[in-house]
Amino acid sequence: MKYYELISEVKQLKLKSRGQKLLKKYDVITVSNVEKLIVPKGSTAKKGLVVKPIISNELNSRCQFDLVDMQEQPDGNYKFILVYQEHLTKFVLLRPLMHKRAEEVAYVLLDIFTTFGAPTILQSDNVQEFSSQGSVKRANQDVENILATWLQDNKTKKWSEGLKFVQFIKNRSLHHGIKCSQYEAMFGCSAKIGLKSSLLPISIINKLKTEEDLEAAITSMNTGDHSEFDEALIEENDEEKKIDNRINKITTVRTEFCERKVGETVKIKIPDVDRPHSDLRCILGVILSVHDDNYKIGTTEGKLDAMIDVIGLNNV
After folding, report:
1. Kind and range of the H or E run holding 80
2. Which positions ≥6 away from 252 have C-beta within 8 Å?
3. Which of 1, 22, 162, 301 could form a disulfide with 150 if both were Cys (CB 3.0 to 4.6 A apart)?
4. How far does CA 149 lie from the centroid of its chain?
5. What does the pLDDT read at residue 255?
6. pLDDT tens-digit profile of 97-113?
7. Torsion angle of alpha carbons 29, 34, 35, 38, nearest 10°?
8. d(CA 37, CA 28)
């Protein structure tokens, strides 16, 4: 049926209130004295993009990488962060970049390939299927949050120096998808942090001065002389119980709604549109005054110009 014949048919059916199937598919409107055929809103089902989850069964069979734009907070000549993720283990590697040109990206990838091997499939964020998965995007958010905390704790703006530490922290953390840390999935064991990863109690470790002291402590533990170790473990367990009790008290207080008071420390969420990638998602402040359930907040950088309502505040 031709276009104008279809317009005529739809108009006649509307007058006769018949032909419901055709009327559900088409309607007629007049635009600048010209009749146009349109599809009524809601007449056709929206066809969403169905993405099959990417499943990897072998180590290094598929890897993904993305770039985090840090041009708003350059660290010397560095302006980007390359986030490289092995898909099976979710293990992440971070590298600073001066540019996002193909030559520099290829040079960094070559360094990774000559250390861990080249994957069968390498995906970048330009691939639609990869972008929709969101795996490396979630890794980006974790990296940004950890990096923001590291920069604040170390009172520095040199984020390129913090990437190695952020990488280690990220890979040591529990990944809920694989039910273990990325480090453990990649290497088959938990990440070691010197003597703190040993079975020696902290109080014994703090007394060690030389390698001979360490050998003596290990020998004592292996030969069955556990008296000193038992006392140290009891002290540590008691301290852990005290910490747990304090955490439970704090959690209980936080769950109860209470009116904010002058002098309280609170957190103020920073909108993403105003927050550079390496900045914290929240800042700490102190309530200076209260006016009609709105709060004047002071921070280490000075007073906030706008008043904050109770919804915008969180307990610390």
Report:
1. strand 80-86
2. none
3. 162
4. 13
5. 45
6. 999 999 999 999 999 99
7. -60
8. 5
